[in-house]
Amino acid sequence: MNAATPGAGAVVTTGAQDVLMVVDVQRDFCPGGALGVAGGDEVVPIINALAPKFSRWVYTRDWHPHDHISFSERPEFRDSSWPPHAVQGTPGAGWCDGLEIPSGALLIGKGDDRHWEEYSGFQVKRLDLTQFLRLRKVERVFVAGLTTDYCVRTTALDAREAGFTVFVIEDAVRGVSADATAAALAAMDAAGIIRIHSDRIESHDH
C-alpha cells in the first residue's frame, strides 16, 4: 500500500484493533518552548477531536533528567546536540495547553535515563510496547504529535518495523525544519507507512 492510498478519498474506520499514538505534545515543543515548533500548538485541537474516535490511546512524553546525554551547552539543534528541554518537573515538560488525555490512555515517559536517548515509546527499556499492544490485539497504529522529523518519524518507523500497519496523520503532526520533515516523510513512505488526513478517520461505536 503506498502513501497516497487513503489520500485518494478512502475513509478508514477505527475499531478495537487500532491505537492512537500521540507523541510528545509538550510545552517545550509548542511555540515559546525550549524547542518550540512553528504551529506545534495547532495539533492540539485536531488530536482532541480524534481521540474519541479510538478506544485505545498511547501518549508519550520526553521526561529528561537535567543532565541528559542529548543536552549541549552549545546546541546545534540536531541529534545529540539539543538545548535542555522537557526536564522532569519543569513547566516545559508538561502537556501543551488544552491537550485532553482520555482517562484510559497509557502514558509513557521516555528519555528519563541520562545515558540513553529514546525518541520513540517503542525504545523504552522498561516497557515492551510491542508486546503490550499485541496482547491487546492491536493491529494498526495511528501516529500524531511532535515532531515529524524526529520523534514522530522514529515512532512510526519503529511501529512499522514491529509489524503494525501504521498511519501518520498529516494534519496532526508538525516538524522542526522543512527539509528534515520532507526527508522524514520520504523515509516513512518508503517503509510503507500510510499518510492520512484526520477527516478521513471515522469510528465505530465503541
| Total separate domains | 1
Tell me, what's the shape? globular
Beta-strand percent range: 15-25%
Q: Main beta sheet, described? A: 6 strands, parallel
CATH topology, which one? Rossmann fold
Kindly report the oligomeric state of this protein.
single chain
Distance between the termini: 27 Å
Annotated CATH architecture = 3-Layer(aba) Sandwich
Strand order of the largest sheet: 4-3-2-5-6-7
Query: Can you give the helix content as a percent range?
Result: 10-25%
Please give the number of β-strands.
Answer: 8
Determine the structural class based on helices, strands and strand pairing: alpha/beta
**What is the CATH superfamily label?**
Isochorismatase-like
Q: Please report the first level of CATH classification, the CATH class.
A: Alpha Beta
Descriptive tags:
Rossmann fold; two-stranded parallel ribbon; alpha/beta; 206 residues
